[in-house]
Each structure stands twice: as C-alpha cells, then as structure tokens.
Design goal:
Keywords: Lyase, Porphyrin biosynthesis. This is Uroporphyrinogen-III synthase. Its EC number is 4.2.1.75. Strands 2-1-9-10 form a four-stranded parallel β-sheet. The longest helix is centred in the middle third of the chain and has 17 residues. The protein is α/β, with parallel strands linked by helices and about 240 residues long. Helix 1 links the parallel strand 1 and strand 2. It folds into two domains: about 120 residues, Rossmann fold; about 120 residues, Rossmann fold. The protein is elongated, with a radius of gyration of 19 Å.
C-alpha cells in the first residue's frame, strides 16, 4: 500500500524508513522547506526556554556561541512533545523540565502555567507561522529561528500524484495521505483541483494530531489521528490498521 509523506524532505526520509520497515511503499512529496534564520539572542532575562518543534531546537542552537550554549544549561526547559525533548537532550545533554501529557500547544501552556513563577520570563524559539497560544498565554517572547517555505514544484508533483492515485484506484487500491502539521496540509490542498479533491475523499488520510486534523478536515475530509501521543511513531499503528 502506498503512503504519501508531506513532511519536509529530511524529516520525510526518516518517516519513510519507519513506514518501509512496516511494509509500506512511500512517496515523499514535501509541501514545506525549512530555512534556518539568523537571530540575535539575549538569554540573560529569561528563566524559561520553550520549544514547540525539533527544528526550533536546531535553529536555536545554530544561533548560539559556546558561552550562550552553556547558559542554556542554567535555564528551565519546556518541550511540546517527546521528539522535541529528544532533540533538545541530544543537542544540549540536558533533560527538559516540562512535557505535557498530550502534545499540543494548549496542553503545553497548561503544564507550564503550573511551573512558571511570577516574574519569570519565557523565550520561545520558533517560526513565523507558529500559533500565538504561548505568546498570549504566557506573555512569552518569540524569536524566529527558522521559517517554513512552500516549494515551487508542488503543483507539478500533485499532477503526478493524481495520475498515480487514479491508477491505484483502478486496481481497487487506496492511497494513504499523511500530514504532520497544518501548514503541510494547507500547502497541499490549496493546489488541488476540485476534481482531485473529490478523488482524495475516497482515499485514507492520517493527521498527526488534533490541530493538524482540524486543518485537514477544513478541506472537507474526516482524517484519522492517533488517540494519544501525537508523533509520527504513533501514526504508524493508525496507518497499519488501514493496510487491509
């Protein structure tokens, strides 16, 4: 069974390997490109640094010199989920202080509110496309350390994908589409013709979590998602259940 991966290319390859180990044929069709940005970072006034993606960790680290990297070890750290926490721990050799039970910005906000003391300032290294949940809920400062750009070849790739999906359907096979962020979904569906959108409604669609599902479903779908942990690893059992 074929699975379409819309993650940025580098992370898409990791997801592809995971799915191929489980017997799936993958098609990597990135609808995002990650571009790391230079930023001036003053860590002195912050007690907390909060990350909402592994790429936020990487982009943040790219902007630090050795002295600043050591300062990070004195800060309290929040992470939206296990993948982000692992990336931070690999990079800085330090465990994070807060991870919510469910991996959404809203749940991270509630977990942080229980830990952050009055007067403690929060820094969130992120992307301009981030939602304002932490900024508004914690009066946090955002610093943009990467951006998510739209690849120019999406329309061309979707034309190829439409032909493939039709070919699979002729053979009574369905295709599984996967989305790991709202922006991957928006960049994908806005380039689909009305005819292709109707064809896609007969396929399977799996979203990584509730925020992504909301974006996917706004295009007229009812996508599936993991029950608890909103990670690509948790998407695999959902996808395996469709392989019938």
């Amino acid at each position: 069974m074929k699975v379409v991966i819309t993650r940025p290319a580098e992370k898409g390859k990791d997801f592809s390997k995971l799915l191929e180990k489980n017997g799936f044929e993958t098609i990597i069709l990135p609808t995002l490109e990650l571009v790391f940005k230079k930023a001036q970072i003053n860590l002195e006034k912050y007690s907390w640094i909060v990350f909402t993606s592994p790429r936020g960790v990487e982009g943040f680290f790219r902007n630090l010199d050795l002295e600043d990297a050591k300062k990070v070890l004195t800060k309290k750290i929040g992470a939206i989920g296990t993948e982000t926490a692992k990336e931070f721990e690999r990079t800085f050799g330090k465990s994070v202080d807060v991870i919510p039970k469910q991996y959404t910005a809203e749940n991270l906000l509630e977990a942080l509110k229980k830990q952050i003391q009055n007067g403690e300032k929060v820094l969130v290294p992120t992307t301009p496309s981030t939602r304002d949940v932490l900024k508004e809920g914690l009066n946090a400062d955002l610093i943009f350390v990467y951006s998510s750009e739209e690849p120019a070849n999406i329309p061309e790739k979707l034309t190829e994908l439409e032909k493939l999906v039709i070919s699979e359907n002729i053979q009574d096979k369905k295709v599984i589409l996967t989305f790991t962020s709202g922006l991957t979904a928006k960049n994908f569906f806005k380039h689909c013709s009305p005819e292709f959108l109707e064809i896609l409604k007969e396929q399977y669609i799996v979203s990584i979590g509730p925020i992504t599902k909301k974006n996917v479903d706004s295009f007229g779908f009812d996508s599936l998602m993991p029950e608890k942990n909103y990670t690509v690893e948790a998407m695999v059992p959902v996808i395996k259940d469709l392989n019938i």
